[in-house]
Amino acid sequence: MPIENIRERIARAESDAGRRIGATRIVAVSKLQPRERIEAALKRGHRLFGENRVQEAAGKWPEFMERYTDAELHLVGPLQTNKARQAMDMFQAIHSVDRIRLARRMASLAQELGRCPELFAQVNTGEEPQKAGIAPLEADGFIEELRSLDLPLNGLMCIPPLDEEPALHFGLLAAIAKRNGLKYLSMGMSGDFETAVRLGATHVRIGTSIFGERGA
Ligand SMILES: *Cc1c(COP(=O)(O)O)cnc(C)c1O
Fold this sequence. Notes:
- The protein is about 45% helix and about 15% strand.
- It has helices at about 5-15, 35-45, 55-65, 85-90, 100-115, 140-150, 165-180, 195-200, 210, and strands at about 25-30, 50, 70-75, 95, 120, 155, 185, 205.
- It contains 9 helices and 8 strands.
- About 40% of the residues are buried.
- It is α/β, with parallel strands linked by helices.
- The structure holds pyridoxal-5'-phosphate (PLP).
- Pyridoxal-5'-phosphate (PLP) binds near residues 159, 189, 208 and 209.
């Protein structure tokens, strides 16, 4: 679906919820997509993209970044501590800060590099054992720790369980962000982004609805 149609559907959801039109940013998740599709989105003027693996992003994005110098790349997938430096060099935002060891490593790199991408803490709202993220009850403490490390934490991210009503999870994430004074909410994917926008998403992460099915 052309990105313009997604933009329209988001605008309708923003309007339904009494939010400002254009308040939600579309992170076009380009993982496992052929280069031509990414190029096509860039040519249509889209500039914000997401990848879920550092290695994969390193293989394809430097070339795009050279040609589209105003493009912005966000990491939406899990980050290994030993890839933190590479990720901090390549991404303008990281949506998946999910443990204190990683946060400490990023804080020391931020000191060394003199800069740090914008950070989102990932919350495992469904408390699923196979999923990354801080448990909801531990989120306030985790946020406090990140702040004490002087990290630029500005938002929260979640991926709701597949078989549950996503609105409950988006509402929970919004509540945690609100009581902690965090301004960004990274929530909503191809199947549920309108619900996320109604509940206050500032960043929706959309892959297949924009680019089509992913390759292997
Ligand atoms: C792949 C991915 C998305 C996009 O998923 P779609 O269902 O294709 O829109 C969003 N967020 C994360 C973390 C992902 O890994």
